[in-house]
Amino acid sequence: MINDLVLINDWHPVANMQQLHDKKLMSIRLLGEDVLVWSSQGRIYAWQDLCIHRGTKLSLGEIVDGDKVQCPYHGWTYNTEGRCVHIPAHPEQTPPDKAVVKTYQAQERYGFIWVTLGKPEHDIAPFPEWDNDAYRKILCGPYTMDACGTRIVENFLDIGHFPFVHEGILGVKERPEIEDYESEITPEGVLSKGVKVYQPDPYGTGLGDTVAYTYRAIRPLTAYLLKESDGPSFSILLTITPHETVGSTAWMWMAMNYGHDLPENELIAWQDEIFEQDRPIVESQRPELLPLDLQAELHLNSDRTAISYRKWLNEMGLTFGTA
Ligand code: FES
Ligand SMILES: [Fe+2]
């Protein structure tokens, strides 16, 4: 297991409900640990993916009697508490007390399965649009990335790259200036408001305009942006599965209270294109881990959100993904 207490004691999205429905027994790599995720009668379970008999992956087995997991090797069978209740080679024998797999907490939220390997001190990040039917929600991803989760989040919080990496979509090279703005560390995380950039066609009218974003880093690996506007509202919740220190899956929920007739596949394709523009940039960054010492790398006013993010991670004692 990756030895970072901040992340061990945090909730992480590991799959969406559809994936679990399709796979029944899922093996997920989380913080360097193999985790079995399965469900029975509407409850979700997350266990160490390891049979205590001979260390076989339980995810290769099957669900039996609707509410038990059977190991594929010698058929040891575990109940929903992770306790072995049946050893086929010795059907008369009560399984030893020690025959229990390691269990973790799991829950569903925002259509994802969230797992913690420890004792969470914080709830899953809020996503205010989720329960508001005025907002259409579109899931983008999963995007697997050969990158550290903190580098992916920092890229999401970075507006200065829009004119270069997303030229013609989120910015233009002729108007790369970033006006100064405020960024603060609040009890709820990092908050930056009025982060402005010029975009060639922000409202689908064919006319360019300067738009402003609100950015939040809510948990170390969950961030949020809101396109500031009095009318149509567009926001994104980004959340990361940290498989390894370098090796992640990114998920995005887009929420919008307009464009209800726009085909979902077009909206996803738009996000896919943007994400694929970011990918080679983020995967190329060295060090792969995010330097939390502000003396490392160079910071300008337009990097205020990233500076806050690094400071905030440092203050909470994150060691994962830092160099
Ligand atoms: S290894 Fe699982 S039953 Fe033997
Ligand atoms: Fe980007």
Largest sheet: 7 strands, antiparallel
Output the radius of gyration: 22 Å
Number of domains: 2
Which word captures the global form?
A: elongated
Main sheet: which strands, in order across?
A: 11-17-16-15-14-13-12
CATH fold field value of the largest domain: Naphthalene 1,2-dioxygenase Alpha Subunit, Chain A, domain 1
The number of distinct helices, counting runs of at least 4 residues, comes to 6
**What's the CATH architecture name of the largest domain?**
Alpha-Beta Complex
What does this structure look like?
It is a single chain. This protein has 323 residues and is α+β, with helices and mostly antiparallel strands. The protein folds into 2 domains: 5-116, Rieske Iron-sulfur Protein (3-layer Sandwich), CATH 2.102.10.10; 136-316, Naphthalene 1,2-dioxygenase Alpha Subunit, Chain A, domain 1, CATH 3.90.380.10. It has 6 helices and 17 strands. The chain has helices at 5-8, 17-23, 149-156, 162-165, 264-284, 304-316, and strands at 12-16, 26-30, 33-40, 43-48, 62-64, 68-70, 77-78, 84-86, 103-109, 112-116, 136-145, 182-186, 189-199, 209-219, 222-228, 234-242, 248-256. The strands form 3 sheets. The chain has a 7-stranded antiparallel beta sheet with strand order 11-17-16-15-14-13-12, with helices on one face. Strands 1-10-9-4-3-2 form a 6-stranded antiparallel beta sheet. A 4-stranded antiparallel beta sheet has the order 5-6-7-8, with no helix packed on it. The longest helix is centred in the C-terminal third of the chain and has 21 residues, at 264-284. The radius of gyration is 22 Å and the shape is elongated. The model has no long low-confidence stretch (mean pLDDT 96). Bound molecules: FE2/S2 (inorganic) cluster and fe (ii) ion. The site of fe (ii) ion has 5 residues, from loops.
